[in-house]
Amino acid sequence: MISNRILPLTAFLVALGIFFAYVQPAWSGTIAETKAAIIANDQALAAANSYAVQQNTLASALNTIDSASLARLNVFLPDSVDNVGLILDLTALASRSGLSLSNIDVTTNITAESASALASGAVPIGHANPVGSIDLSLSAVGTYAALQTFLTGIEKSQRILDVQDIVVKGSDTSVYTYQMKLRLFWLR
């Protein structure tokens, strides 16, 4: 009769000991960490699926845009700076206008914040401007009418060009020397 009560009591105490010594620490330790990792991975998978759906939506929207419109947009705001192409375009515009271009210099606009980011090798996404700009300094010689035609050509250009500064050096003849600073915008 005593053994009938001692055996179940001993089994119960052994079960409590196993629970508190092994099951409970394993459940609250490694199993809890594994569950948290599974939840984090499930959230990352859901975000990746959402990204894939959005990417497919944007790709299908891009495919609906006319290729001629995309080409015009690429000329309007290119994804890189084509210095040689821009200088050739400006030279052709100047020759059609009657100006003679010389001394074309290209300089980048780097702020203190972007210079430190470039030095570190990374640009913080929250502060990154998606549109970059480059300044062009050029000298030209020609008549005032030729300058007006040249500036009208820049105004009607498909690329975004902003005339920042014009300095006119006078002369006794009708031919003047012009120092211009133009700003070109591009998509980073």
Structure write-up:
It is a single chain. It is rod-shaped, with a radius of gyration of 35 Å. The chain has a four-stranded antiparallel sheet. Helix content is 58%, strand content 22%. The chain is an alpha+beta fold and 188 residues long. The model has no long low-confidence stretch (mean pLDDT 81). The chain has helices at 2-64, 67-76, 83-97, 112-120, 144-155, and strands at residues 100-108, 131-142, 161-169, 176-187. α3 (83-97) crosses α5 (144-155). The protein contains five helices and four strands, in the order αααβαβαββ. It folds into two domains: 1-64; 75-187, Alpha-Beta Plaits.
Task: Give a summary of the structure in a few sentences.
This protein is an alpha+beta fold. The chain has helices at residues 2-64, 67-76, 83-97, 112-120, 144-155; strands at 100-108, 131-142, 161-169, 176-187.
